[in-house]
């Protein structure tokens, strides 16, 4: 296993660290599966749910606040722990989408049929791992409508 960890399991396209890990794992190690594994009770997600100046953490938490904004109507309809758990799950799904948006994943999948991207959430309280059952093919297709990086950049120009 090749593992990368950060606060609230974020995959940001401008984060050279996580992007290097994904590129190395996909293009050189030829990994068959990529798993974004979040966890319930995540402190990073909790902090993002609190409208407060967190100093240097602001730009990092902003990514999670953006996930909240994407699902605002649904999240505003639930309270307390249910809302918190739901945002943890939405965040994992969004970060999985961010991985699918990369050229490395799209090009490798077009050529070899892997990697497949998965979204999991671990529960420290019950020890269970929840598979969010991402429809990888469906997500890839939806994402490639706008973010398709499998065609040559100069094609047709
Ligand atoms: Zn966490």
Automatic annotation (TrEMBL):
The keyword Magnesium does not apply. GO terms for biological process: cellular response to carbon dioxide; cellular response to oxidative stress. The keyword Hydrolase does not apply. Pfam families: Pro_CA. InterPro entries: Carbonic_anhydrase, Carbonic_anhydrase_sf. GO terms for cellular component: cytoplasm. Keywords: Lyase, Metal-binding, Zinc. Its cofactor is Zn(2+). It catalyses: hydrogencarbonate + H(+) = CO2 + H2O. GO terms for molecular function: carbonate dehydratase activity; zinc ion binding. Binds 1 zinc ion per subunit. Its EC number is 4.2.1.1. Zn(2+) binds at residues 39, 42. Reversible hydration of carbon dioxide. Belongs to the beta-class carbonic anhydrase family. This is Carbonic anhydrase. It comes from Lentithecium fluviatile CBS 122367.
